[in-house]
Design a protein that fits this description.
Length: about 350
């Protein structure tokens, strides 16, 4: 099988913002669910990451989900962040997320840490999964699975362990972080014994791609979540392994690839902003319209969609329907253009 690049670049502690759709924008396809925090606990030795467990206020079952899924969380301030679910997919009585505090972040993780105390009510969207575990299904021929987590990137990997344990597929995992104290859920990982290898960067230096991958048998699958340099190194190391599936999820934004500068004109005012070659169109829009709606910045939530009134967009997302494309919408968080675009803002 060809090398599969299935990651969608979703991120934990993502600093998107949320507001009601503005004219000319599509509403995000979300159904929000009221939930209440039932439990919170530090999950790293250095207390930098906290797990939040929450349930429906009336105890009714939450929507089903599968390993690798994430949810949009609307924090009490109205800020929306996206977090991987890291609880038990077979238990619909509650969900669990885990969030590391980012001191110089844009506030989402700080609000989770300060505001999501037991009893706090907030809302989440139905789970979505762009990082599914595709093992154990009909006609599935994976010979072994290698799981690689970096830091808080362990969150989508954690539910995969239980699922893999229920299949006959051999698996192993390496979990990397700066220090042992910075690694999350070590007590839960302990039950898997030597199938989980812990790597402390501060002691041994950053692991090489070869160390991370180990000995991959033919038809192996690699699932990884972590920082972009780690993902990029793994991708490069697997270029010559067409028999290996590579599934990844980043937890920070991917850089713009093959970008050229172009202009955006706001139809309402005639104002023109330049989009730099290494900048997203959304970033340029936010410079002029700070209240513009967006969320994932990955081209899948559609909340940033804006209509192009003139010009030819270069679509770099498949999240819009043919009808929406025909209507002129594009997603400025990922899509670009070779020339000037006049947008309905
Ligand atoms: S912000 Fe989610 S698709 Fe653009």
């Amino acid at each position: 099988m060809l090398l599969l690049l299935l990651g969608y670049d979703a991120i934990n502690w993502f600093d998107g913002r949320f507001s009601l759709p503005t004219p000319g924008m599509l509403a995000a396809p979300c159904e929000f669910i009221d939930v209440v925090v039932t439990e919170r606990a530090a999950v790293t030795g250095d207390q930098s990451a906290v797990a939040i467990t929450f349930a429906a206020p009336d105890g009714s079952p939450l929507p089903a989900w599968s390993a690798g899924a994430h949810i949009d969380v609307t924090l009490p301030s109205g800020t929306v962040r996206q977090y991987s679910l890291c609880g038990d997919p077979t238990d619909q009585s509650s969900y669990r997320i885990a969030v590391r505090l980012i001191q110089d972040g844009r506030g989402g993780s700080a609000e989770v840490h300060s505001a999501l105390t037991v009893g706090t009510e907030f809302q989440v969207a139905r789970p979505r999964n762009a990082f599914p575990l595709a093992v154990g299904g009909y006609n599935q021929t994976t010979s072994a699975v290698r799981l690689i987590a970096g830091g808080i990137g362990v969150t989508p990997i954690l539910p995969m362990l239980d699922m893999l344990d229920r299949t006959a597929t051999p698996w192993s995992m390496i979990y990397c972080g700066r220090t042992r104290d910075s690694l999350a859920f070590l007590s839960e990982l302990a039950r898997f014994g030597d199938r989980v290898t812990i790597h402390e960067d501060a002691t041994y230096g950053p692991a090489s791609a070869e160390e991370l991958l180990g000995d991959l048998t033919v038809s192996s699958a690699v699932y990884t979540c972590g920082p972009p340099p780690m993902i990029d190194a793994l991708r490069a190391a697997l270029v010559d392994r067409p028999d290996v599936e590579f599934h990844y999820e980043r937890f920070s934004l991917a850089p713009v690839v093959d970008g050229r500068e172009f202009d955006l004109r706001f139809a309402s005012s005639g104002e023109v902003v330049r989009v730099a070659a290494d900048q997203t169109a959304l970033s340029a829009i936010l410079g002029a319209r700070p209240d513009a709606t967006y969320s994932c910045q990955q081209g899948f939530c559609r909340s940033c969609a804006v209509r192009v009134l003139d010009g030819a967009p270069e679509h770099r997302s498949t999240a819009l329907s043919p009808g929406e494309l025909d209507a002129g919408y594009f997603l400025p968080c990922v899509s670009r253009s070779e020339g000037c675009l006049t947008i309905d803002m």
